[in-house]
Input
Amino acid sequence: MIKKFLDLGYQPLANAYIDKKKLNYKEKKFKLEVGFNKKNYLVSILKTVSKEKMFNKDYPYKSSESNTMQKSFRDLANKLKKRFKPKFIIEIGSNDGAFIKNFKKKNVVGVEPCKNLAQITKRKKYTIYSEYWSQKLSKKITKFKKADLIYSANTLSHIENIDEIFKAVNNALSKKGILIIEDPSLLKCLQNVAYDQFYCEHIYVFSTLALREVLKKFKLEIFDIETTKTHGGSNRYFIKKVENNFYKINKRVKNEIKKELKFGLNKYTTYKKFEKKVKISKQKLLNIFSRLVKKKLTIVGYGATAKSCTVLNYCNIGNKSINYFYDTTSYKINKYLPGSRILIKKYQKLDPKEVDVAYLGAWNFKEEIFKKEKAFIKKGGKFITHVPYPKII
Ligand code: TYD
Output
């Protein structure tokens, strides 16, 4: 039923940054292939890695390290308080607390299996369950009161067992309760040829179409949808129990589905076209790098993202092309990118005396980065991006 449409080669774990001491060890790699389920339109990677290998005490991603993310969580929390007035909130994948810190401690509970991240919020006296989201956990959390709001950003697409997720959500929601999930949009991913949305942790890249199909089984439905710029284009889905008549289904849901159908997200041929575009994108990016390397220009990477792991390994770009990466995340500094083994240095403003071109690993923060690097750009500094097609800016 699931038909493969894209082969991104052998890839290491995208967030497994390598310590200098471990550079002599060979990394485990897995075949990254992406498929389309004709029955429910779900797009998923074909071979998954166990969750314990990916989400553990060494997980490097912290939401609070990005100003853009902090602000967007704050704005969203304020909007949700006004629109839904939730009294009891659960966040699945609360990371280091960037969302829940906008609520009163007594009103909110976080679920975060990565112990290093859970610890940060626990220290601030929030209630955090350092476990994976499951039916058992949802029953434990909602033993005395059900949730009015369950929020989960960039987490559900990481969980292989969809049945377990939504059964647990069903257990936990009050009658009027709603689930809001936010994940990269498949439509945007295809439109932008952002094939780097596919890596080990992104088991699914959701479309509205697919999510609607999946939710039917659990008597859940989407009643509203918002598009956001997060992670290069995401959808925020507002979901309720079918029996909950408290909220009407907004026109935006139908419109989004119309857009997705027009693009052909329900057809396998669309995904094969995408595959062709990905191959062209690889070739163009390699041409750019080879041109710049021949000119002996100094190229660095900007933002050692999980996404860039897919690009670098698929295109076989290593430290002969990119001297080093700059990144602001403390955990990543002085480590090496998985697979490509490019050194990650502590972020410094780009200096045109040292850097000629910067490859935008964090292309999803292009606006924020271009603002920060105004001086570099003014003095002729350039960036390379592969989204929506490889080019020098
Ligand atoms: P993220 O957007 O989470 O992408 P992914 O999910 O693919 O890992 O990661 C952004 C990375 O970019 C993170 O490591 C921080 C880094 N970064 C910078 O180094 N400088 C910046 O100005 C910004 C915005 C991000």
About this structure: The chain has a mean pLDDT of 95. The CA atoms of residues 273 and 303 lie 29 Å apart.
